[in-house]
Design goal:
Elements lengths: L4 E6 L9 H13 L4 E8 L5 H8 L4 E6 L11 H9 L4 H4 L6 H12 L3 E5 L14 E6 L3 H11 L3 H22 L4 E4 L2 H11 L4 E3 L18 E5 L5 H21 L4 E5 L4 H4 L8 E5 L5 H4 L4 E4 L10 H8 L3 E3 L16 E2 L3 H12 L2 H18 L4 H15 L1
Parallel strand pairs: 1-2, 1-4, 2-3, 4-5, 5-6, 6-7, 8-9, 8-11, 9-10, 11-12, 12-13
Length: about 400
């Protein structure tokens, strides 16, 4: 029997795997490449290097990347264009990834490559689906986008931002409602997201996709001072809000009890957000780093103070893999099967969050228990063996249709 072909459409080139979405996309491609012939088309904010392209090509994957600066463009810089799309019912989440040269290329590729499956990675890439459906269509849904915008709307303090997010949320809901029904099957990122899709959009052809994350043997290098770590691109609003909330309401309480404590933030910086943050000498913004290991190896506590967002924050698995105890809001670990007091510590408000952190610094035995239980959880639920479950479901969907 001939090898089935997949046309894989994604909104970001997954190498280097320096963010949650990229890590998940790369894991999926590695799994699918074991059984399918893949041609992957990306609409990306940057052009990958030859070395980065080779990372997929060596898996046998053919690659085409379209680069556009629209993805990172601020809506404030072109309000007329935003209003025009809103009037037409198109959310920013979709039109920021609209790249006109990509449409004819994909249509031509479908005729030449003749895929059996079109796999859409991120819902906004569904805009590139052909008008006539002749293949099995599968969606890899990273977030319930409407829910993500709802959390951002709820937490945003500014009226103008709330107005924008409310319109964006409504248009995204309509797009999500209409588009989800076009797919033969949807892979949700977690059981929590699967239930949201079922309850909000009444779609039943959904299964949760096991998220594979390798365990590492990172050696801990004790820091001279208590070391708190956060990782994430500060251009992503949930990350920006998490760091701002931590700096304004949580970290001052920690420093009051443990004055030598340092807060290290690793991830692409956004000066326009940082100007509103308190200037603290023991908060170090490292910016983008090609390797996280030097920071992970020193960290005593990994914080996830999230108040907005959707999907799963894969940085939790990064912390578990590196052997760092986690303190998080409930939303921070949403979608994982983690248990408060066993493999992480939960804090619903700033006072409790600070108390959990300082308590960990005072209790080495508790830190060790959390690390051991977290590592066991990672090996049980996120090992590479879980790819077998994903491929079995994928195979059954393709064979059925």
């Amino acid at each position: 029997m001939a090898t089935r072909k997949i046309l894989y459409l994604s909104q970001m080139y997954p190498y280097p795997p320096d963010g949650g979405g990229k890590i998940k996309t790369l894991a999926t491609l590695r799994a699918l490449a074991q059984e399918y012939e893949i041609f992957a088309v990306f609409v990306s904010e940057t052009n990958p290097t030859a070395e980065e392209l080779y990372e997929l090509e060596k898996l046998g994957i053919k690659v085409k990347v379209f680069c556009t600066d629209k993805i990172l463009a601020s809506v404030k810089d072109d309000l007329a264009n935003l209003a025009w799309h809103f009037i037409r019912g198109v959310p920013h989440y979709v039109f920021q990834y609209t790249h006109q040269p990509t449409f004819p290329y994909i249509q031509s590729l479908i005729k030449e490559f003749k895929p059996d499956v079109i796999h859409v990675d991120h819902l906004n890439m569904a805009q590139y689906l052909p008008k006539q459906k002749k293949q099995t269509w599968i969606l890899e849904h990273h977030n319930v986008e409407t829910y993500l915008y709802w959390t951002r709307f709820w937490q945003s303090p500014r009226i103008t931002r709330k107005a924008y997010l409310f319109i964006e949320m409504l248009l995204t809901f309509l797009f999500e409602w209409k588009t989800l029904r076009r797919f033969d099957h949807v892979f949700a990122i977690s059981d929590v997201e699967r239930r949201r899709l079922t309850h909000i959009f009444y779609v039943s052809n959904v299964t949760s996709q096991p998220l594979v994350y390798p365990a590492t043997n990172l050696k801990h290098v004790p820091s001279r001072r208590p070391y708190i770590l956060f990782i994430g691109n500060l251009g992503w609003p949930p990350n920006e809000d998490a760091v701002e909330w931590f700096l304004k309401t949580i970290f001052p309480q920690v420093v009051q009890k443990l004055p030598e404590t340092e807060f290290h933030v690793v991830g692409k910086r956004q000066p326009r957000y940082e100007k509103n943050w308190p200037k603290l000498k023991n908060c170090i913004l490292h910016g983008y780093q090609s390797s996280l290991d030097p920071f992970l190896s020193k960290a005593d506590v990994f914080v996830m103070p999230f108040r907005m967002g959707g999907g799963m924050r894969i940085k939790a698995l990064t912390a578990l893999s590196a052997g760092i105890p986690i303190v998080s809001t409930p939303l921070g670990v949403d979608g994982f099967g983690l248990t408060h007091g066993k493999n992480y510590l939960r804090a619903k408000d700033a006072d409790r969050f600070a108390l959990m952190i300082t308590g960990l610094f005072d209790n080495k035995r508790q830190r060790n228990r959390l690390v051991t239980a977290g590592f066991n959880y990672l090996q049980k639920y996120h090992s590479v063996e879980k790819n077998k479950d994903f491929l079995a479901v994928y195979r059954s969907v393709v064979n059925f249709h």
